[in-house]
Amino acid sequence: MIIFLPKNKIMKNRYKILIILLIIVIFLVLRTLWYAGTFKTLSTNSNNKTQFITGLVGAEDIAIDKTTGLAIVSSCDRRKVMDGKDVKGAIYSLNFMGTSPTFKNLTSSFDQPDFRPHGLSLYIDPMDSTKWLFVVNHRVSGHSIEIFQYLDSILIHKETVTNPLIKKPNDVVG
After folding, report:
1. Cβ-based neighbour number of residue 31 at 10 Å
2. Tens digit of each residue's pLDDT (9 = 90 or more) over 3-56
3. d(Cα 50, Cα 17) in Å, to the nearest integer?
4. Of the segments 26-30, 96-100, 149-153, which one has the largest average pLDDT value?
5. Which of 134, 92, 87, 146 is nearest to 114 (CA)?
6. Cα–Cα distance, 81 to 99 (Å, whole number)
7. Where are the beta strands (DSSP E) in 23-141?
8. Could you say which of 34, 54, 114, 144 has the lowest number of CB atoms within 10 Å?
9. How far is CA 130 from the centre of its chain?
10. Helical (H) or strand (E) element with 19
11. CA proximity to 92, closest of 137, 50, 56, 126
12. Is the Cα dihedral 94, 53, 88, 172 positive or negative?
């Protein structure tokens, strides 16, 4: 037995299904936008005292030592490197708490002429509270990870880690 519905009824059912599907899609899109924070209002939480800190070219990465409040910054003038010039980068500390924040070179005694730091990671050993700084180094001879012991005002180089599997590192986690 075959039941024929009038064309008018079939069209009404198709429209109902289409409208329901459209409502579901609109709901899912709005829900996704809501969770992504699209409708969130952002407000400024500052005292409007902005201070530009000069004296450093090519800052690449930053880590904050929460025990001292110092920022540790890797820096290398990559434009000069791309121009083929011999450039030595450095790791700097920056004290935000001072009235006139300035950068202090922590690697001035590091005797590697092609030191080109990129990403860095500060690790504080939970057993003895020693601080270790792991730094990606883009040397002329290849990429490596430099490991320093961090003593709040100086870095002591402990080890260079190289491996053929290290291709183009960007960052490291200690």
Report:
1. 10
2. 555 566 666 788 888 999 999 999 999 999 999 988 888 777 767 677 777 778
3. 57
4. 26-30
5. 87
6. 33
7. 59-65, 70-75, 90-95, 103-105, 117-124, 131-139
8. 54
9. 24
10. helix 7-35
11. 56
12. positive
Tokens 């008018």 sit on residue: 8
- Altogether, the residues listed in the chain come to a count of 174
pTM of the model: 0.69
Considering only CA atoms, which of 124, 126, 173, 127 is closest in space to residue 150?
124
Q: Looking at the DSSP assignment, which residues form a beta bridge with residue 121?
A: 134
The distance from CA 109 to its chain's CA centroid, rounded to whole angstroms, is 27
Give the burial class of 3: count Cβ atoms within 10 A of its Cβ; 0-12 exposed, 13-18 middle, 19 or more buried: exposed
Written as six digits, the tokens of 168 are: 């183009």
Q: What would the two tokens of residue 151 be?
A: 């003593």
The whole-number average pLDDT for the span 62-76 is 90
d(CA 69, CA 119): 19
Q: How far is CA 167 from the centre of its chain?
A: 19
